[in-house]
Each structure stands twice: as C-alpha cells, then as structure tokens.
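Task card 7
Instruction: Convert sequence to structure tokens.
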Amino acid sequence: MKFDMNKMILFSSIFVISMIFSLSIDSAFAHPHPGQITINGHTHEPQTEITPLNGLIGLEKSTVFFHTPDENSLPWAFVEGTIANHVEGYPVIIQIFKDNQVVHFAQTNVDSFGQYEYKFRVLNSDNGNTNKIFHGDYSVKIFKVVYLNQENLI
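Output:
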C-alpha cells in the first residue's frame, strides 16, 4: 500500500477545520429531531438574546423548539449544546413549555469544554402499557451565563 501525502494533507486539513468550527460555535439542540425543526409546516430557527448582568458577564437565553410525533417510540430525548464563552461555576437552566405553560424544569452542569447535556424521558413503558410523557410541540428555553466580550479575556 502506497502512502499518498496529498490525501493525508487533505484529511488533516478537513479534520482541523472541523475541530475549529465545533469548538467555536455556540449551539443548542432539542432532540429527537436533529437540526432545524418543522412545526405547523414551517421551520423554526433558534432564538437567542443576552441580558448583561454586569460589565463582564451576561445571561444568554436561547429558545429552541422540540417536537415528539404521535408515532414516537423512543423513550428518551435530550437537550445538548456547546457554550463558546461559558463562565465556569454556573450551570445551564432548562425550561420546557407547552402552550406557554411550563411543564418541566432542569439544571445541568457544563464541562470544561463548555458542553452540556440533559436527558429526559418522553415515553414510559411499564408492563406493556405505554404512557407518552411528552407529545406534540414544545418550546425549550436554555439559560447560560456567558462572558460578554470574550476577546477581552486574558
């Protein structure tokens, strides 16, 4: 087998670019639907707003949409994300709403890479009886404490 330097350089370049983008993008997803979610025939983009707490840090609120279809057979769903400018020592707070009524609260820690994940049951099966805990459309509000001007940090 002959070693091809051009293929190795191409692979290495793609890998490095992928790693840079994955570490620099602040993202949040509500699953089991990956990416953009179509609800009522149109796509919902995540909405984000930041409220300054002082001159250095702020509270970032992201709103994403979550949908569990009638035919869902998966027992778990999760909210996950990566925070590019996370303030250490502050957890992520997650609130799940259906028809503007809160149905679930959660708190989860953020690891040293700025990543978080919260897993929750959407379907319960006990002795052959299935109970849908979550079904339909939900909005998920994710609160994170972030640095306001990351480029000014040493």
